[in-house]
Amino acid sequence: MTRNREAGIAGMKDMGRLMKELMPKLKGKADGKLVSQRVKEILEKEGRRLDSAR
Questions:
Q1: Which long-range contacts (CB under 8 A, 24 or more apart) does 27-34 make?
Q2: Residue 9: other Cβ atoms inside 10 A
Q3: Reduced to 3 states, what is the DSSP secondary structure of residue 8?
Q4: Non-local CB neighbours of 36 within 8 Å, separated by 6+ positions
Q5: pLDDT digits over 17-53, tens only?
Q6: What values do phi and psi take at 44, rounded to 5?
Q7: Cα pseudo-dihedral 38, 42, 45, 50, rounded to 10
Q8: What is the pLDDT of residue 5?
Q9: What is d(CA 46, CA 4) in angstroms, rounded to the nearest whole number?
Q10: Cα(44)–Cα(52) distance, integer angstroms
Q11: Strand, coil or helix: what is 1?
Q12: Which DSSP state fits 5?
């Protein structure tokens, strides 16, 4: 998730911005609902990791 931090993506509050960037690249290749679910899982995991590092 280092790239996410470099892109200014800090957690769930940035999910919409991330999905807006991803979906045009994945159109016709992946189901948006599945992409959203996976992005949410990753952001939640990253958020927990960052919280425990504080």
A1: none
A2: 20
A3: coil
A4: 15, 19
A5: 889 999 999 999 999 999 999 999 988 887 776 666 6
A6: -65, -40
A7: -160
A8: 56
A9: 10
A10: 12
A11: coil
A12: H
- In the chain the domains, ranked by start, together with CATH numbers, are 2-53 (1.10.10)
Residue 1 pLDDT level (bands cut at 50, 70, 90): very low
**Calpha distance 40→33 (Å, rounded):** 11
Which tokens belong to 34?
Answer: 């599945």
CA 28/CA 6 separation, integer angstroms: 28
Q: How far apart are CA 30 and CA 20, in angstroms?
A: 14
Cα gap 25→32, rounded to integer Å:
11
